[in-house]
Amino acid sequence: MSLFSRREVLSGLSAGALGLLALNKGGSAALAGMGHVSAGNLSELTARKNRTSLHYLFCAKPKGLEGWPYHQYDHAARAEYFTRRLMQIGDIDWSGGEIIEREEDIQGLKGKLDGADGLVVIALTSPARGLSSLYEMQLETPTILFNDLFCGDCSFLGYQQRAMGKGLRLVSLSSEDTGLLERKLQLLRATARLRRSKIICFRERGDQNPDFTRTAAEKLGVELIYMGSAEINAAYEKADKARAKEIAGRWIEAAEKVVEPKTEEIVDSARMYLALSSLMQQEQANAVTVDCLTMVYGKKISAYPCLAFVQMNDEGYVGACESDLAATLTMLVVGYLADRPGFMSDPVLDTEAGLIYHAHCLSATRMSGLEGPAEPCVIRSHSEDRSGVSLEVKFTPGHKITAAKYVPFDKMLVSTGEIVGNKSTELACRSKMVTRVDKEGVRRMLNGYSGGLHRIIFYGDHVEDLEDLGRLLDFQVVNETA
């Protein structure tokens, strides 16, 4: 069960008190925060941020010219078919629709791409005029090239041969299934949302690696800003205690049970949620990562942010532990692609049993997607020091999973498996997913281990889509268990 639903959040808020709005695909209002901007203005901002602007065009030959599929083929009717399909996609603003029949017709394309998040090119015939010039333009715009099977193949394959290894931000598709193009548009949604993302990293030492911060902006379009415990504490003191009690009550009601924490501690966690939410609203950020262990152990902050992160992740934001920016970027990159939140974990490898356990003291509960069913959960203390509040989530066996870790800025580590249960032990972190890989796969991961500790778990097999996304974002996918 999710900690509480969007409808429950909204029911307890006035219009002026609506703080954060989850930047999910539908642009739905979600998170109760401390912002003072009106709900109407924020709703418009959210919808604008979530819409993707794409330009599309067709490459073809003049009717009557010999070639595939045949000389009198009515490519204009086929273009009309694709246009009707594309226009039915509700969250994309389309421009273009040109049919290129001469190489020179494509020369003005760069100017038309101003403000576009991506480009879709459909090869309708062979020859497909404009493809050669498109290659020469070396566009920086993320591009999907779709071959209409038995029509554009000859020109499409020639273009593909020239483009390979040239560093173009290009995904090429070739299928009789035209629905493949529509499904792969999620790649362009993901890159667009990345370029509108902003992470607040809370740690006392600030920005120790300006090169990392700059490269995140240049390569992914993600803005990073840095704050410390002072900003958290100031926001925590301003948090509405009555609202925090209401949120804590909903959390308690939604959980299967509460084991160790006292009600006052859960209220403190809700105040932390409101504090971080208000800072996200202030900075118009959609992700946070907190150096939580250092700050709690050093008594720099008053509560663990575990439940705050759960709530944020369940609503389309990202809340990540231990000021791990690589993990936070993974949650953004893969979360946008998979359209669902992830579970940040420490991997535990059993080479003899062929199992990988994934353990941490919190997880999103809406692992199947923001509108999907929520996993059951138990409110627990934080395991390592047996204090504060965290969450034990019970993951549903049978789900295929993808474990991922972005290694900035050129690699994405992945592995796949199947959930076979939840480990019941008081050792280590509270949430412990059990996944079956195979003995050799676990051994390969152990003997080639890299990329630091954390992995992010997503329901579903997303490896193929990550390989395609890597072509747009210039990273290589490395399977740790294959």
Name of the level-1 CATH class of the largest domain = Alpha Beta
Q: Figure out the total of helices.
A: 16
- Beta strand count: 18
Please state the second-level CATH architecture of the largest domain. Answer: Alpha-Beta Barrel
Strand content bin: 15-25%
Strand-pairing-aware structural class: alpha/beta
Largest sheet report: 6 strands, antiparallel, barrel
Task: Give me the side-by-side strand order of the main sheet.
Answer: 10-11-16-15-14-17
The first-to-last residue Cα distance is 34 Å
Shape: elongated
Rg over CA atoms: 24 Å
Please explain how this structure is put together.
The chain has 482 residues and is α/β, with parallel strands linked by helices. It has 3 domains: 6-50, no CATH class; 53-192, Rossmann fold (3-Layer(aba) Sandwich); 196-479, L-fucose Isomerase, Chain A, domain 3 (Alpha-Beta Barrel). The protein is built from 16 helices and 18 strands. The chain has a 6-stranded antiparallel barrel with strand order 10-11-16-15-14-17. Strand 14 (400-407) and strand 15 form a beta hairpin. Helix 7 (179-194) packs across helix 16 and helix 11 packs across helix 13 (306-314). The two termini are 34 Å apart. Residues 6-48 have low confidence and may be disordered. InterPro entries: Fucose_isomerase_N/cen_sf (IPR009015), TAT_signal (IPR006311). This is L-fucose isomerase C-terminal domain-containing protein. One of its GO terms (cellular component) is cytoplasm.
